Amino acid sequence: MQDPEVRAAEQLLAPAHSVLVISHVRPDGDGIGSLLAFTLLMQAAGKRVFPVLADGAPDRFGYLPGAESILHAPTEKPDLIVAVDCSDLGRLGLSEEQLGGRPDLSFDHHATNTYFAGVNIVVPAAAATAEVLYDFASAVGFRIDTAVATCLLTGLVTDTVGFRTENVTPKVLRLAATLVERGAPLAEVYDRGLNRRSIPAARFWGRGLSSLGWDDGIAWASLTEADRRAAGYVGSDDADLINLLTTLDGALVALVFVEQPGGRVKVSWRSTAGVDVARLAQAFGGGGHEPAAGAVIDGALDQVRTQVLSTTRSFLHTSLGPHA
Ligand code: AMP
Ligand code: MN
Ligand code: MN
Q1: Closest ligand relative to 264 C-alpha
Q2: What SS3 class is residue 107?
Q3: Is residue 51 in contact with ligand 1, taking CB distance under 6 Å?
Q4: Ligand located closest to 87 CA
Q5: What distance in Å separates the CA atoms of residue 324 and residue 322, rounded to the nearest whole number?
Q6: Where are the beta strands (DSSP E) in the chain?
Q7: Which residues lie closer than 8 Å to 211 by C-beta, 6 or more apart?
Q8: Is the CB of 129 under 6 A from ligand 1?
Q9: Which protein residue has the closest C-alpha to ligand 1 atom 11?
Q10: CA-CA distance, 136 to 2, in Å (whole number)?
Q11: Is the alpha carbon torsion for 280, 226, 58, 61 positive or negative?
Q12: What is the largest CA-CA distance in the chain?
């Protein structure tokens, strides 16, 4: 984190009386954890804060401190707009007009971040935006209480899938320990953030798994709107099925295709070391990190799947060469 950016962010924050904080559509634990942590920090600094998620808060994170105050859209024009864990403007899910302006400040860790805000604190080496926020809070002297620590630990635990990703450094583990020292309940954060599943989610997984495809190191599954209805699953995401596919023996790349209303398909990629799926996702208008990326693609499920699998296959061969 660069000192001039930290100072620039401080100067933006100091005079603001009201702050709108926003994260990305289909929010994950880092999106909502970072959103709520920053909301709490700003409230403690005496500001009026509006936490906004275009899609609202997923049920599993409803227990986090401040989750009940999350809005779907701004209710008034704030002095300052802050984006967290969001790589580009489109991912906010609200237009500039709906937001009341362009974000003034952004905290993020996506390698594909487009530097869309006035001041951008983007640290691609960080395991989660929660880590970026903790470092910022430490640099400017904000106090991390139990509530903030719980939100930050949620970001850290979920983005690293329980400290299982390659970007988990000793620093990340020390940060987790510090947050636990501040009172964050690790077992509960882990269980609620990663383990708990609803019965409809399990049924949705079942339908997805029955469509499992496998070809030369590529594993994929598809989830249709009909699957969602039959399972009774609420939400437009994959219920985390992608993290299950990454555990399959020999899988170099895992993909999940989720049919969306309106003729679009959400694609998630996960890869093992050496295959930069963020570049693949970018080629389809999405983004993410080297080992985890996503895109929303226009088209019918079958057509999108065929095209994405073919591109992924060629990309894999170029990245690694032909393999067994
Ligand atoms: P997901 O597959 O949705 O869990 O996303 C994996 C990673 O890629 C996360 O870091 C997301 O923030 C990022 N990502 C997912 N979808 C998009 C998108 N449409 N545009 C940019 N980044 C995305
Ligand atoms: Mn996120
Ligand atoms: Mn993140």
Answers
A1: 1
A2: strand
A3: no
A4: 1
A5: 7
A6: 18-22, 48-52, 80-84, 105-108, 119-122, 213-215, 218-223, 253-260, 264-271, 287-289, 292-298
A7: 221, 222, 223
A8: no
A9: 288
A10: 10
A11: negative
A12: 60
pLDDT reported for residue 51: 98
Q: Tell me the per-residue pLDDT of 247-300, one tens digit each, with 9 for 90 and over.
A: 999 999 999 999 999 999 999 999 987 899 999 999 999 999 899 999 999 999
Q: Is the CB of 296 under 6 A from ligand 1?
A: yes
pLDDT(324) > 60: no
Task: Pick the residue whose CA is nearest to atom 17 on ligand 1.
Answer: 294
**Rounded distance, CA 171 to CA 164, Å?**
14
CA 291 / ligand 1 centre spacing (Å): 11
pLDDT tens column, 199-255: 999 999 999 999 999 998 999 999 999 999 999 999 889 999 999 999 999 999 999
What burial class does residue 310 get, using C-beta atoms within 10 Å of its C-beta: 0-12 exposed, 13-18 middle, 19+ buried? Answer: exposed
Tokens 């939100």 correspond to 151
